[in-house]
Structures are given as structure tokens and as C-alpha cells.
Design brief:
Number of helices: 5
CATH architecture of the domain at 15-63 and 96-139: Alpha-Beta Complex
Order of helices and strands: EHEHEEHHHEE
Strand content: 15-25%
Strand order of the largest sheet: 5-2-1-6
Largest sheet: 4 strands, parallel
Shape: globular
Length: 143
């Protein structure tokens, strides 16, 4: 019987920066989710947050299929009766470009207790600047 590997001690996470300009939303979201969960690392262990952070810049320049632009609607609920709010993709992108990527990545993550901890490690910014230069993020290239 083989034992399950479990990382010992403090697991240090890496910081990655991703430029979303001209990238497809779905393909970018799957790669970001893979990094947040830690599946790109050799010491990946299910059920352990390895602490990798992803900083996404240029969120307002993300690309989606034209049909998706017309049909995609984001929903949120205030918790009160009649509190369902709808916003289409173009309005969401011009008002809150970071939410477009956050919702897409959240949909790619496993639905369990660790989802919020993974999402805390995702930082999304509409423009090219971000305040995480001190962490020295490495550029993450998509294949």
C-alpha cells in the first residue's frame, strides 16, 4: 500500500502575472484555474492550497466570440424578493472588467471549501498596472 504524498512545512507559492490582452476568455480562465489549484506543480496534492497567486492585467482587453457578446448575461441576487439583477456582457465589461474574468475563473474551479481560498489568490486589474511588483511576479505564458 502506497502512502499519499502531503507537503511538509510551509509551502511557498509563486506569483504569476498574466496579460489578458487579446486572449480568449475561456482558455485564459482554464489556465488560471489550473495555476490556482496547483496542478502545474510537481508537488500537487488534492485538498491542499499551495499558495500560487495569479495577477491578471488588461482585463478590459479580453476577447470573446461575437455570439457570446450578444447572448451572455450575468446574474446576481441581492437576497431580497425581486432582487435579481441582470447585466449583459458589454455593460459588465465596461463597468466591471475584473468581474468578467473572476466569474469565468470561479466557474472553472472545483466547488468545495477551498474555492474561496483559491479566489483570494486571484488579483484582476482592468489596466496594465498592478500594485504587486514587490512580490516579483513571473510572467505566465499560455501555450
Amino acid at each position: 500500500m502506497e502512502k499519499t504524498y502531503y507537503p511538509k512545512g510551509n509551502v511557498t507559492g509563486e506569483w504569476y502575472v498574466v496579460d489578458a490582452a487579446g486572449k480568449s476568455l475561456g482558455r485564459l480562465a482554464t489556465k488560471i484555474a489550473e495555476v490556482l489549484v496547483g496542478k502545474h506543480r510537481p508537488d500537487f496534492t488534492p485538498g491542499v492550497v499551495l499558495g500560487d497567486h495569479v495577477v491578471v492585467v488588461n482585463a478590459e482587453k479580453i476577447v470573446v466570440h461575437p455570439t457570446r457578446v450578444k447572448e451572455k448575461i450575468y446574474y446576481r441576487h441581492s437576497g431580497y424578493p425581486g432582487g435579481l439583477h441582470e447585466i449583459d456582457y458589454t455593460r459588465q465589461l465596461e463597468k466591471f472588467p475584473d468581474r468578467v474574468i473572476r466569474f469565468a475563473v470561479c466557474g472553472m474551479l472545483p466547488k468545495n471549501r477551498l474555492t474561496e481560498r483559491y479566489m483570494d489568490n486571484l488579483k484582476v486589474y482592468a489596466g496594465p498596472e498592478h500594485p504587486h511588483q514587490a512580490q516579483e511576479p513571473k510572467p505566465f505564458e499560455m501555450e
